[in-house]
Amino acid sequence: MSLKVIEQEVVECRRCARLVEWRERVGREKRRAYMDWEYWARPIPGFGDPEARLLILGLAPAAHGGNRTGRVFTGDRSGDWLYAALHRAGFANQPTSTHVGDGLAVTDVWITAAVKCAPPDNKPLPAERDACFPFAVAELRALPNLRAIVCLGKFAWDNALRLLRDAGHAIPVPAPVFGHAAQARIAPGLTLIGSYHPSQQNTFTGRLTEPMLDAVFTLARQAIGGEQG
Q1: Low-confidence ranges of the chain (pLDDT < 50)
Q2: Distance CA 123, CA 146 (A)
Q3: Number of helices and strands in the chain (H, E)
């Protein structure tokens, strides 16, 4: 299945009643700062370079970020940190991602979330995670050049291990443990890399700093071959 077909199926999905109700209610009620916006209020497909060697996997869209703008990690503080780091690492042509059509382009990277709809309190239920799992599987299969996965947070790390197991890769026993800058070689030419999520909870407290995030993308560069695509 092509990434374009996956995108179409993601956008049309209404499998999870709780998430459909929440994302649409947020889009109606809005936040005062965004009253002039017409919220996307639908599932958020992946974004990036179809020839990507690097996959970035997050948890889920933010209610007033991706759920508003229609692009993953766009229009919120987490995205500010992520795209600034990708720009410093040479994966993005600009350090900001504010809205679809803002000129952002990424090279050699595909960015997606394990759950495609914004969940209440940023906490999807297990059944909601499972309902989205086939989309992530399809994305993984549609990225033939993939050599590394950066997991933003433990939720993404655990889902990546599940994805790779589903894809037929032998996961080490015991399973690799999540940590910032943790690395696990899953197969020849395929590396899993952990990072604290660039959420405000982590960036405001100093648990995640810009140099720490830059170090993760240095590891990612090394894992995919070092050179810029």
Answers
A1: 229
A2: 28
A3: 8, 6
Measured distance CA(98)–CA(66) in Å, rounded: 10
pLDDT of residue 68: 97
For the four alpha carbons of 45, 198, 186 and 60, in that order, the dihedral sign comes to: negative
Residue 156 CA: distances (Å) to CA of 20, 93, 95, 193, 217 = 22, 25, 23, 11, 16
Look up residue 7 and give its amino acid. E
Tokens in use for 73? 């990690």
Q: Minimal CA–CA distance to 128: which of 14, 42, 25, 44?
A: 14
Q: What is the CA radius of gyration of the chain?
A: 16
Q: Judging by beta carbons within 10 Å of its beta carbon (0-12, 13-18, 19+), is residue 183 exposed, middle or buried?
A: middle
Name the 3-class secondary structure at 38.
Answer: coil
d(CA 112, CA 128): 16
pLDDT at 228: 53
| Domains of the chain listed by start with CATH number | 3-224 (3.40.470.10)
pTM score of the predicted model: 0.94
Q: What are phi and psi of 195, to 5 degrees?
A: -145, 140
